[in-house]
Amino acid sequence: MTDWIKKALTRIVEPKGLRKGHAIALEPNPRLVLLVRFSLGMTTLLSVLEVAHLVFLHSWNSEVFAGIAGLIGTVTGVLIGRHV
Question: pLDDT tens digits, residue range 7-18?
Answer without folding.
Answer: 989 988 888 776
